[in-house]
Amino acid sequence: MIKGRAWKYGDDVNTDVIFPGRYTYARMEPEEMAKHALEDLDPKFAAEVKPGDVIVAGKNFGCGSSREQAATCLVAAGVGAVIAKSFARIFFRNAINNGLLVLEIPEAVDAIGPGDEVEIDPEAGVLRHKGREYRFPPLPPTVMEILRDGGLIPHLKKALTKEG
Amino acid sequence: MGKTFAEKILTQKAGLPEAVPGQIVEATPDLGMSHDNTAAIKKIFGKLGLARVRDPERFVVILDHVVPAAQVQYAENHKEIREFVRAQGIRFYDVGRGICHQVVVEEGLARPGWLILGADSHTTTYGALGAFSAGIGRSEMAALWATSKLWLKVPTTIRIELSGTLPELVTSKDVILHLIGRLGADGALYRSVEFAGPLVERMSISDRIVLCNMAAEMGAKNGYVAPDETCFSYLRELGVTDYEPVYPDPDAAYEEVLRFDLTDLPPQVARPHTVDNVVPISEVEGLRVDQVLLGTCTNGRIEDLRLAAEVMGGRPVAEGVRMLVIPASREVWAAAAQEGLLGKFVEAGAMVLNPGCGPCLGAHQGVLAPGEVCVSTSNRNFKGRMGSPEAEVYLASPAVAAAAAVTGEITDPRKLLGS
Ligand code: SF4
Q1: Fold of the CATH domain B5-13+25-260
Q2: For B321-350, how does the pLDDT look when each residue is reduced to its tens digit (9 = 90+)?
Q3: Average pLDDT of span B108-133
Q4: How does B20-37 read in b/e, with b if 16+ C-beta sit within 10 Å?
Q5: Closest-CA residue in chain A for B37?
Q6: What residues contact B204, with CB distance under 8 A and at least 6 apart?
């Protein structure tokens, strides 16, 4: 179960504002990356975000470069899920591969306001906001398994150990 | 019902009898590419506790992003990568060989019918040679090193048919900017894009590369041009004959078929800060420019340098403008030197830099100060992309960039020819 406040943004939030390009080749630990999350879009986000908070955004969230830190920094900042009208392809993949739940629920995006309380049950496929329930189709089993294992690498590690 | 290119090739690479859009398949790529981010991938790979990359001959590593190293931490990354590829026996191109996408093409590593996955968003480039190529993340590359397999969602496909004859000094860069402006930055989200039609059939490989490179900027998973004699003869010159092209069926089921006649297309410019903020050049003419970047994986080939030199026509770079010329690879650099182009640029007052990504990603070699304006032949103009978030980047063709360099403002290059 994911529970937190909503941080609301618009369309086309690109990876350069989620994690600025000037840091991408610096050797950084996730905790350090978290301090720069959304820095060029919302300078107070990194300091004020609480574990379980969700990002709510318009269409094409995560467009731009393939940088995985855009997903890593959000996970490290404690973000529980990103709900958007649509996602850029590579960000969508990076998010799942980093164990970050990403959901396309356009009606919920329109309804949720900044700071609202949001609750998500990924296994049941339900998002709750102000007494209303939004259902979303369950993710494909391969994807759900990766999310449950906390990302592609832990998932693979588990698989390799089993084989091994 | 027939199959699209994407459906056919993913079915084949996953070893399945059939795959339909939306299905998740596990596919084995023919090539996996990574660049300076290989050090970070290695770190993730390390977490898997494996000593060896499973099929090292399937991978290539090219150092291009911040080359030569601009800071100690980059130098450390590069050093770590050199040691790793040597130990694993992975094909490697060191600092100075060129931008990853250009090098993959020049080395004959992009082939019709291949599945190529690269840890870089512009991996879509190789569709110009009939490959299915898509960008992936770092964890995914680490997973590929470990298992040679990755989950991929079979995309639906948009077919874009282009016809008409482009006016003089209007290029495939103007075409793709126009298309991105029309379709939007999410116009092809998750989808495969097939570029076709008489205009595309007449395009050179270099022009097709521009289309497929920037397909990423409309959100596409991949871009594709059906391989034809232009492609085969290009590969023959490289000594590459070992491949099997894959074509869409004539009755393939497309999500959408879009047709454009581009006969009167004027030069196009993408204004800050999104690539789909595209206008005809007349709307931005006269804007003062501080920096011009001619280069990158989008427009740093010999054809681009020739065109820019032609438009400059021996005029000097305007007072107050910094012009950076960055050939996309060592081969381009050498050819441009031999043709006398580099000398012309230098005489005009430009700086000719070593092959690499340069300031395209805002890490070094000419980043922008707040308030500065840059006309760039690259593929992205996001806020902060080339330095300060308060700088402005306008994307355009090499002809438009060259005209801006010599006039100091955004200028329709056609006004310079013959004057
Ligand atoms: S030139 Fe720019 S867009 Fe191309 S690979 Fe390098 S950083 Fe990426």
Answers
A1: Aconitase; domain 3 (3.30.499)
A2: 999 999 999 999 999 999 999 999 999 999
A3: 97
A4: ebebebebbbbbbbbbbb
A5: A25
A6: B230, B303
Question: Is residue A30 within 8 angstroms of chain B, CB to CB?
Answer: no
pLDDT reading at B222 higher than 60: yes
Lowest pLDDT segment from A8-12, A31-35, B411-415 = A31-35
Segment B150-164, tens digit of pLDDT: 989 899 999 999 999
CATH 3.40.1360.10 applies to domain B269-415: no
Domain range list for chain B: 5-13+25-260, 269-415
Nearest alpha carbon to residue B128 among B339, B292, B263, B297: B297
Residue B130 gets the label, from left (phi > 0), alpha (psi -120 to 50) or beta, of left
The model's pTM: 0.89
Which chain A residues are within 8 Å of B274, Cβ to Cβ?
Answer: 12, 14
Q: Whose CA is nearest to atom 2 of ligand 1?
A: B360
Contact A66 B136 (CB under 8 A): yes
8 Å CB contact of B383 and A152: no
Task: Sort out which chain B residues have CB atoms less than 8 A from A43's CB and list them.
Answer: none
Question: Which residues of chain B make contact with A13, given a CB cutoff of 8 A?
Answer: none
Model confidence pLDDT, tens digit, residues A55-102: 999 999 999 876 888 999 999 999 999 999 999 888 998 899 999 999
Of B66, B189, B382, nearest to A16 by CB-CB distance is: B382
Residue to mutate among A97, A100, A143, A160, with most B CBs inside 10 A, is A97
Q: Residue B64: which of B83, B37, B86 has the closest Cα?
A: B37
CB B91 within 8 A of CB B108: no
**Protein residues whose CB sits closer than 6 Å to any atom of ligand 1:** B 65, 99-101, 120, 122, 296-297, 357, 360-361, 378-379
Q: How many CB atoms lie within 10 A of CB B114?
A: 22
> Which of the listed residues B65, B324, B381 should we mutate to test ligand 1's pocket, taking the one with most ligand atoms within 8 A of CB?
B65
Domains of chain A from N-terminus onward: 2-139 (3.20.19.10)
